[in-house]
Amino acid sequence: MPQKKILLLGKIIRYLSRIPLRILVKFKIFLKTKKNYQSELINEQRRLFLNIDLDRKAGKDLVNKVCGEIFNHGYDESEGMFSEHLIIMGSLSIVKQKYKRILEIGTYDGKSALLLSKLFTQAEIVTIDLPSDTSDYVSSYHRESYHKKFVEERDNLLRKSEQIKFIEMNSVRLSDYDLGKFDLIWIDGAHGYPVVAIDIINAFRLIKSGGIVMLDDVHKSVKKSDNLYSSVASFEVLNLLKNNGLIDDYKLFRKRLGVKYNIKDYTEKFVGLVKF
Ligand SMILES: C[S@@+](CC[C@H](N)C(=O)[O-])C[C@H]1O[C@@H](n2cnc3c(N)ncnc32)[C@H](O)[C@@H]1O
Question: Residue 229: CB within 6 Å of ligand 1?
């Protein structure tokens, strides 16, 4: 059989083999929607915010307003990298306007750094990402075909705030780089081993007393693990540090609240938060 036909046949078989799983996931979504799962998720999140003295609704309203001003659209969790981390930052900014220095690991398109600068108007925002001429940078996050344009647009966005200081560096170099201390650190670079373990240890060293470290994409379990996007690494490292008395506790907030993002063991992802 010619090569093309074999490839096509392989594709069809793979597609068909995934159908039962898709039906199961859709069925679970349907059942959970019926049981008001959506409002349960929102209420649970509101309680978690209250637990650390944050007002989720006020935070969301503020993020909505600021997003409208700088991006011409409100907060929408299905938009790009938007997720509950922005709502946590928004509600935090209402009570912590005194924050002076914020570190973001993983700049991506610069939107979160710009938003942080508008939420924390007194703060310097230091944001770092891999050097844009490295293959690790170019080949990740589907940037291959347009990475020059991506970098240009990111830099244009970052230039919109004088509070932002952007550094091209691999985050593991924070171990040997004097950036000073921070009030808030957002760990959102590589999500798997070994990098995220190093990022967490560096963040705990660089955080001021009374500060907050937040981590993106914490998975309690994954079907397939890698060192950049999906891993249980941050969950395991947080538990290890807690069990050894190096942190008192940590909180996990659901990353997105839509039912389809919260099917147990399939799509659940969390934003971690540690208070110092
Ligand atoms: C999920 S995106 C960040 C999204 C952004 N923080 C937000 O909140 O919208 C991850 C970014 O981390 C960067 N990254 C991955 N590994 C890194 C590393 N070792 N050091 C610095 N940045 C890294 C990637 O290049 C990518 O741009």
Answer: no
